[in-house]
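Recall the central idea of this unit: under ordinary conditions, the amino acid sequence of a chain determines the structure it adopts. In this exercise we apply that idea directly, starting from the sequence alone.
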Amino acid sequence: MYLYRNREVESFYPLHFFKNLSDIRIGILTNLKRYGILYNSEPTYLIKLDDILCKGIYIDETFISHTKLSFKQNTILLKDGEIVGYYILNKTAYNRINTKSEIEGIKLEYAYSIIKHNLEIIKKDYILLNKEYTHNTTDNLILYGEKRNLFICETVKINGKIIFNTENGPIYIDDNVIFNGFNHIEGPCYIGKDTIVDSVKIRPGCTFGKVNRISGEIEESIFMDYANKHHIGFIGHSIIGNWVNLGALTTNSDLKNNYHNVRLTIKEKTIDTGMLKMGCIIGDFSKTGIGTLINTGTITGVSCNIFGSKSTEKFYPSFSWKNSTIMYDIEKAIDTIKITMNRRDVTLNKDTENTLREIIKKERNSNGNQKLS
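Accordingly, the structure predicted from this sequence is:
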């Protein structure tokens, strides 16, 4: 089983800098774990395909499927006419394969595609994991919907009252999650390991990675790992990167007043998402100040510090300070990142630091210490 690097990886800006796309959690699982469970074999990641393919199944890392494949001959795998993989029984050059077959699954084209499909993927991941209900309803745990659609790990702590609603989809609560106060959670939803949930209203279609701090209202959004939204505010139809901190009352818009499709701007390129609701995508290590109002379809790169009394701009390149034109000093940014990570007993490694320096050179054409802040 092989997953290979997508050639259009930069279409997933700003999520592609520190992880392979196959390592990004979508639904409940990463694609590496998803295919590992499906085929009972840990996939090997390939930076590029060789001209000659040996026996095995080769899948584009941006293609998500819950259907186990089986063919009787070498086959090119297609989704809506686009190549998403190869099923190889006999060693061959991939450009010599004549048989083609359309297969079931989801092909992600851009970062916003994750938001579009996350709700559906949670449902299918839950079925794949085949978990059984383990908790009884009590005075502090109320369930609306079917028990089989709720899985809570034994190490979860509920300090207060919580309402789970699985009428529209399953809810999976992973190890060592702590609930404080009153919480209302609607499925489909996944809450990752060691996350603290404080008086939150979670609407359907949300995924939270490990060691998050979440509060307020959240709808159809994906939080990566170590993200902090520990205050009141609304986040909807958005992706929040690793180590992002959202200041108190940070709120995003996910719907245009004219009800037209949301358009994104990435590096001077405008993209029509085809989505009526689309919030924001915030890159790793970025932060918002108190009361930040995030515009519909806003994209921020890596290590941005966004604050001010006005609604945000549509695009912030990496290392933006307050607005898109002022550059965040790289040394100050890295120092803050180290402090942030140390608060969670994590150390910034040299590879990540080097990547940060490469990003500022590429996006800002700078070594990072020529301007503010």
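The first strand starts at residue 2 and ends at 4.
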